[in-house]
Input
Amino acid sequence: MWFEILCGLVVFRLLRRFFYDDDILEIETTDSDSKFLVASRIEKLYGGKVYLGLRIPDADTGSRQNIDMVLVTKGEAVVIAVKNFSGFVGIDADGSWVCTSKSKYKTERHPDPVVETKRQVAVLESYLEQRGVTLPEGYLSGKVVLPNPNCRTIHSISFPSEVISFDEWIQLKPEPKSMFSGWFKDAFRGEKKMYDAVHQKLHFVLSTAPVWDRLELKNNKNLLGEFMEFKGKQEDIQALRNTKRSKVSWLIIQKSAMFGLGRSKLQVLYSPRDYRNEGASVSEWKEVTVRHSTEVLFQPQNSNKVQKFKLSSIISMSLSA
Output
């Protein structure tokens, strides 16, 4: 019996190695995945534009404030914190949140995310003012989303109105456009040109604000974090020498191509960085070919561990300025 079990495990590992990329299989559902899913659904529900993975300079601390995402519609901007908590969630007497696992009865404590989000709103508002965007009072607000289906709030505890529990999250419906576009325009007393100018500048500032690097993997996996370097044969590293952060904003990994003696390599397309924020034209994209064994070293957000990913498991990678 034990021999049959061992044989089954060996066959399973061989099949898994043949059909799947190990570096993808080792990634569980991550906070980054939750953020991408929330961003996608919010854009569908409310329209507008979501800016994901912001790292806003904080003048008070001299560091950068991480902001999960900012939704900008025609009438408001919302800082949204995504908390991938699991288990039963309650609020302690000191305001901290307590998460108790349903299966392991393990308890974790977290700082009040509502207080954190209000702090992020203040930091973002200050940053926007420094870059010449002054918004009407109340235009920028904050929300906390709990999208994990294994997260349940304790109903006997009154959670702040800024919190959207999982049950509320799955019941959200598209809002009528009229709810968003009225009072913000009234703040400019009908001066449409001024309103449009502020709105356009807001989008420009957020689109050029510091962000985390992004890694899009196969099997619908996404990671926010920091690209470290490429690892592989010297020939391949030399071919990738121009794909530096200061020079490149986007890389796309193409399908395999045959290059002599039946050997297969990967095509890597990269877009030269355009600091005018106009983007590179198709004719400006560059191409290099490298071995499948070439790896990307990437440190996920909120992790001290640098992970390795084969280029063959990557769809695209964007690099912040």
Observations:
- Residues 74 and 181 are 6 Å apart (CA to CA).
